[in-house]
Amino acid sequence: MTSSKLNQFLNENLEDLKSQGLYNEIDPVKGANGPIIHVNGKDLINLSSNNYLGLATDARLKNVAKQAIDSHGVGAGAVRTINGTLDLHLKLEEKLAQFKGTEAAIAYQSGFNCNMAAISAVMDKNDAILSDELNHASIIDGCRLSKAKIIRVNHSDMEDLRQKAKEAVESGLYNKIMIITDGVFSMDGDVAKLPEIVEIAEEFDLMTYVDDAHGSGVLGKGAGTVKHFGLQDKVDFQIGTLSKAIGVVGGYVAGKQNLIDWLKVRSRPFLFSTSLTPADVAASTAAIDLLMESSELQEKLWENSEYLKKGLSALGFDIGHSETPITPCIIGDEKTTQQFSKRLNEEGVYAKSIVFPTVPKGTGRVRNMPTAAHTKDMLDQALAIYEKVGKEMNLI
Ligand code: PMP
């Protein structure tokens, strides 16, 4: 029998979310997550996946994954520290270090658990973390798990960061202090001010931690935001995910050898959760090879995103201040945002609404993620639907 307290808690809170228009309905996708997806019996132009370069369905990677299953099986069989470190994991980590320009790298089962793992392995209750207020949820959770003092910094406000860094150092309260930021902020598409962040870190001798989930494969000729600014030697932790531009699943930290050695003995998901599957690891390694060999897919991604941004702006939509392919269409009110997304969907575009608590109240948006796999024709069709629905709802 279910506990009556649990029932009451669930029913009241679910009702509350639904009445505020904040309950997120899940749309199952039938088949692959490509530029066109099949949802609720219809083919839709997909502007909601993180598959930036179209690699999630790339034929070359599918073949590599199949071969890895044939040679290594479907599962790694154990955690990394028992006997779940296969030759394929080491190959991936070597490749990641090469890709990021660091001494070494360590792979995790997801970007989310990578942040939980890495932050809590290094920081503790005697430390402090200066964390941008728009950092990803997994960074926030990793910071909380570490028990370090979390000092929230106004978004990309370098004056605020400098002031709070100075206060934290001068207070003498903390053993270690770390600055943590997203490389590219996932809801607005703006890029962290890494040169200034690194300067502040050097001034006060602080650690730097950059989660480049949305910059890797996209900026810095593919290598990410840190490379984009030429700061490979100045950032202690380069975090990435294998689930977005790389097209597969997993997360990683790239950095100095001693950092990676420490994470291998102290980061809990590495010690206590079964390692990535052979197919994931082999496909990710092959994807990074593709990225290092050619920038063709990145060029296509940027061309498509410029095209979509120009088109939405010309129609009169507020697309914010993105500096990357992430293209928000800011509507404001939560219910209107959800209604807009629903109407786009009915007309043939899958562009998901993003509302509080993922973004602040009153800044609801439909977030568009163009990819290298979209054709001009698909983008033109999407823009025509945006125009139709935008006019119908008096948004433009
Ligand atoms: N960090 C950031 C900045 C992200 O945007 C995401 C993905 N939403 C993650 C970490 C988590 O990555 P993953 O999906 O691989 O768990």
From TrEMBL:
Q: What is its EC number?
A: 2.3.1.29
Q: Which UniProt keywords apply?
A: Acyltransferase, Pyridoxal phosphate, Transferase
Molecular function (Gene Ontology), one example? glycine C-acetyltransferase activity
Q: Which residues form the signal peptide?
A: none
Matching entries from CDD domains are given as:
KBL_like (cd06454)
Going by the entry's taxonomy, the superkingdom of the source organism is recorded as Bacteria
Q: Which metal ions or organic cofactors does this protein require, according to UniProt?
A: pyridoxal 5'-phosphate
Under the heading Pfam families, the entry gives: Aminotran_1_2 (PF00155)
Q: Where is the Aminotransferase class I/classII large domain?
A: 42-383
**Entry keyword Thylakoid:** no
Q: Which NCBIfam families is this protein grouped with?
A: gly_Cac_T_rel (TIGR01825), PRK06939.1 (NF005394)
Family in the record: Belongs to the class-II pyridoxal-phosphate-dependent aminotransferase family.
**PANTHER family tied to this protein:** CLASS II AMINOTRANSFERASE/8-AMINO-7-OXONONANOATE SYNTHASE, LD36009P
Q: How does it assemble?
A: Homodimer.
Q: What is this protein called?
A: Glycine C-acetyltransferase
